[in-house]
Amino acid sequence: MRSKSADRTAKHYQVTFFEEGKMNEWVGDWKEARLGDLFELKKGKKVNVTDKPAEKSTPYLVIGNLRGKPITNFTDDKNGLLCAPNDLLLVWDGANCGTIGSGLKGFVGSTISRLRLIDDSVDKDYVLAFLKSKFKYFNSHITGATIPHLEKNCVINLKIPLPPLETQKEIVAILEKAEHLKAWREEADKLTDEYLKSVFLELFGDPVRNSKAWTRIKLGKLCDIRRGASPRPIKDYLGGTVPWVKIGDGSKGNDTYIEETKEKILEEGVSKSVLVKKGALIFANCGVSLGFARILKIDGCIHDGWLSFDNIDSGLNKMYLLKLINFITDHFRKIAPDGTQPNLNTGIMKNFEIPLP
To answer: What does the pLDDT read at residue 230?
Structure first.
């Protein structure tokens, strides 16, 4: 099972550390400065781009490179805006306004602005962490009907809390440690997942090939399978107290249970939906996320993208069924019929045979 606290550690520090009241433990000579007084801002330029660079071609940086994608664009032009690894790069145009990056070298893309530090009392990585926490702020200060752009004044006038330089570096060290902890946690989760799968194989064999030659029984003979349903139009029922279980509630974090939902609906929407009781096993049966199962730790209405498995036969352990389904998620995605979106309907799932030790 994944550790929620460990997975959220880095994000918690990144996003909330700079919010008012979150830095009370830090004392000293704090100041405040405008971003425009600390950095020189220049917009990137369009250049002629090639994906077949010569020996002296210059990398041309686009938004994806700020998110870790490898550089694939190059140019032989000489009139672009160059950036160095110590510069900050801020996405200025498009749906990703506010994305921030650093550590890159090359010509700056036309949708990106270069922020070059002009104040040696400021740690660049400290400001980088601060600006990463302001993505929502930047996205709420955009203009342009067709293509959104950052409002220049909202950027240059953004106030940055500035402790002494040594304190800035100390804060950066804490944030980097949190990032490392997250990476270690993810690696540990990956190794744990691989180990648990090997144990499952050893105990029960490959469920698809049925390598242990267990009796195979149609799932529809072992439980009742029914579709989910949502009240329509859903916008008329949002904002209540009844959990509305969407696919996203089960596709991240805990890989066994759903303990909370992002959305809730009004009581009157229950009669037009499918209310599934606490302890039920549900299966994501359509869309790009189909093929995994979860157990509800809440009573809730399930979204159209779920099937519920109810009245499970006493000879079928619910946790075994859950682990078996999650073990062969990729298999379900392969067998889903082609269409507008993959869908494993009730008929398909009722006839799906599972090995029953």
So the answer is: 85
